[in-house]
Amino acid sequence: MEKNWKIETLAVQAGYEPGDGDPRILPLSQSTTFKYNDVQSVADLFDLKKSGFFYSRLANPTVDCFEKKIAAMEKGVAAVALSSGQAASAYSLLNIARCGDHVLALSSLYGGTVSLFTNTLKKAGIEITFVTPDASYNEVCAAIRPNTKAVFIESLANPALIVADFEIYAKAAHAHGLPLIVDNTFPTPVLCNPFDFGADIVTHSTTKYIDGHATSVGGIVVEKGGFDWGCGKFPEFTEPDESYHGTVYTRDFPDCPFSVKLRVQLVRDYGIPMAPFNAFLSHIGCETLPLRIERHSENALEVAKFLKQHPNVSWVNYPGLPDNPEYAKVQKYFRNGMASGVLCFGVKGGKAAGERAMNALKLANIVVHVADVRTGVLHPASMTHRQLSDSELIAAGVSPDLIRLSVGIENVEDIKADLDQALRA
C-alpha cells in the first residue's frame, strides 16, 4: 500500500488490495470457519507461526481489511476491531492493567467511559483516578503513581467538547514510561491523528462517524508501534505466555506486540470481535468519511453561529467558534481548523424549556446516538449520563440544561429552520 497517500485516498484505497480477477469491492466473508488441506497448517496458525484465518472469533478476512484501513488512516502499525467502542476503551486498558494497578484519566471523558472506569474496572481491582482538563504538566505528573499503567484521554470530549492538550499528557506519560491512550472518536483520523502528538494507542467507537450511517456497532484499537513495552512495567509483554507455548510478545512480534497480545489473549478469551458484516459496513463508511466530516464540520459551525444569535438560546459550546476557549487547540491539533459535527447549547428557561424545544423538533430526532448523517439531539443529564453523580456530571462538563446536538449532513438551512421553529414553539 502506498505510504504517502493523503487521508482522502487512504479512506478509499487502504485496507483491501484486490488481485487479478478479484472483486473490486471488499467481499463480505460471512463465515465462522475456514478450510485447510492439512493438520499442520492449522497447527501453525494456533501456534502463531504464521498469519491467517481459522475462526472468526480471532480473525476474519473482512474484519482484517477494515483493521488495515483504520491503521493506515491513523498512521499505526496494526489495529484490532472489537464489538463496540466501550469494548475498545475497556480492553485497551485490560491489555496492560490488572488487579492492583492504576490508570490516570481525564475527568471530561464520555459518561459511559467514566461509568466503565469507576464501576466495572474498579470491581476488577483496577483503580482509576481523574485529573481535570486544565491540569498542568506538573499536576498530571503528581497524579501518576508507581503502579500506574497508562494515561487515558479523549481527543474531543463527549459532550463537554474539550480538546485535550496532547503534548502535556504525552510528555507526562512518557516521562514515567507509560503509554498514552487516546479515544479519537469525534475528530476521526480525518481531522486528527493523535500519533502525531505523542499518543501510543488510539481507540474509536466506529459506531459513530466511521460507520456514519447508524447501521453497525463497533470499536477499534490502533497501535502506533515503537513504545518500549520492555521498560520493566509490563512483564506480560516480556515474559513467556504459557497459553501460547511460551510466546514472548516483544520478542516474537516486535513491531506490534500490543495488538497481537490483545487479539490472542483478550479477544480469544472474552470473545469480543467485530462481526464481519459490521466491518463490511464500516469499511464502506470509511470511503466517504472525509467528505462527510467536512460537511458535518461546516454545518455545525454555521448552526453554532446561528444559535449564538438566537433570542431563546442562553449559551452555545462549539470549539470551532473563534471565541470558544478550545479554539486555539482546535487550530493546533485538528486539520484545517475543523471541529467535527457536535455542539452543545442551553435554552433560556432551563431544562424544562429545553425539553419542550426538543419535543418540537421535526427534522432532527431525539436519539441516543451521535455522529451519523442525520441530525439528532439528546439530553445527556437524563439520558447517556444519567448514571453519573452530580459531581461526576460537573466534572464531565454536563450541566442540567445541556442539549447535545449532532449536526447531520442535511442542507444547513433546513437544519436551522427546524431549530428555529422548535425554539420558538
Description:
Helices cover 38% and strands 13% of the residues. It contains 17 helices and 12 strands. It has a 7-stranded mixed beta sheet, with helices on both faces. The protein has a 5-stranded mixed beta sheet with strand order 8-9-12-11-10. β5, α8 and β6 form a beta-alpha-beta unit. α1 packs antiparallel against α3 (61-73), α6 crosses α7 (166-175) and α15 packs across α17. The model has no long low-confidence stretch (mean pLDDT 94).
Given the structure, what is the number of helices?
Answer: 17
Relative helix content: 25-40%
> What's the β-strand tally?
12
Rounded to an integer in angstroms, the radius of gyration calculated over CA atoms is 22 Å
Query: Strand percentage, roughly?
Result: 5-15%
Globally, the shape reads: globular
Strand and helix order: HHHEHEHEHEHEHEEHHHHHEHEHEEHEH
Average pLDDT confidence is 94
Report strand order across the widest sheet.
1-7-6-5-4-2-3
Largest sheet: 7 strands, mixed
- Beginning-to-end CA distance, first to last residue: 54 Å
Structural class: alpha/beta
What low-confidence regions span 5 or more consecutive residues with pLDDT below 50? Answer: none
